[in-house]
Amino acid sequence: LHSTYVYHRTGTTPYHHLHTANTYLLAYLLHYIPFYMMARVLYFHHFYSSFLFNCLLTATLAQIHLAPRPRWITGILVGVVAGSFLLFAPLAYGIPVDQDKQTYGFVKRL
Hints:
Blueprint: H1 2-10, H2 14-36, H3 44-66, H4 71-93, H5 106-109
């Protein structure tokens, strides 16, 4: 009921979102595949353009699949995403790890 209301109110259809997701997937693959085939060390700037399309694709797929779900399920999923961000942000942003305190001891287990 909620998803039909959203589509009726905005004038879009689920097929419009699927077309958008297909476009983002194609753009992601066109930016990712050339660097995947390279036989050398690849750094973040090589994958940055494909990462942007991956973010857009993820948001579009979340909108397609989470719109008809109850809000509490969406809240749990958003909490899991926020928790994983907080867990791995020190690794992604290069925050120094204190070896004495083993602040991020899970890094060794990964």
